[in-house]
Amino acid sequence: MTATAAFFFCLCLAFPPAAEAGLYTASDQVVLLSEQNVGSVLVNSSVAMVVEFYASWCGHCMVFSPTYKKLARDTKEWKPAVNIAAIDCAAEDNKQICRDYEITGYPTIKFFHAYSKADSSGVTYRGFSHDVRELRHRIIDSLESHGEPWPPACPPLEPTSEAEINNFFETNTVQHLALIFEDKKSYIGRE
């Protein structure tokens, strides 16, 4: 191999093409969206989706990506009720998808309810935080506004009534039940 060829080979390894240089991998617990799977993942899915639309060259996206990766790891137990996904709008094959979902800036985060229709562009999170805890709370708030049909794998998020507790003991043989009493603004039980 000549010195020029070796230099070019090393340069290609250091700076892969934009389509391959996305900010996320499957090991980040992030569902990677593309032209091939975006329809099957977002349309009529039984799972609610949080999607980051980003550009791999975008400085704000690069700064936000560690937070988004942490959010994905932090909420991995929420699957299969909610999935965290991302799509690189800088990849040539994804540009039309990002236009179709009305993406005008990066990063953009959108929430897609379970069973979203093909014409749904999702609910945009405006002014979202770089704090994982606050992002989790935004997801819970979005789930609570979900309506029907509810994601099948998602437990009810509203407080339990006295009648439900009484019914639990009438229909179960367990001797103990742990209850969490919390302030109405608390997210502990819902998380």
The sequence of SSEs as H and E is HEHEHEHEEHH
Structural class: alpha/beta
Give the tally of β-strands.
5
Overall geometric form: elongated
Q: Percent of residues in helical segments?
A: 25-40%
Domain Thioredoxin: 12-145
Keywords: Signal
Protein name: Thioredoxin domain-containing protein
Organism: Ameca splendens
List the helices and strands and how they pair.
Layout (H helix, E strand, L loop, with lengths): L2 H12 L16 E2 L5 H5 L5 E7 L4 H16 L7 E7 L6 H6 L7 E5 L10 E3 L6 H13 L17 H10 L20
Parallel strand pairs: 1-3, 2-3
Antiparallel strand pairs: 2-4, 4-5
Helix pairs in contact: 3-5
General description of the model:
With 191 residues, this protein is of the alpha/beta class. The protein has helices spanning 3-14, 38-42, 59-74, 95-100, 132-144, 162-171; strands spanning 31-32, 48-54, 82-88, 108-112, 123-125. The protein has a 5-stranded mixed beta sheet, with helices on one face. Helix 3 (59-74) packs across helix 5 (132-144). It is elongated and about 60 Å long. Residues 3-20 have low confidence and may be disordered.
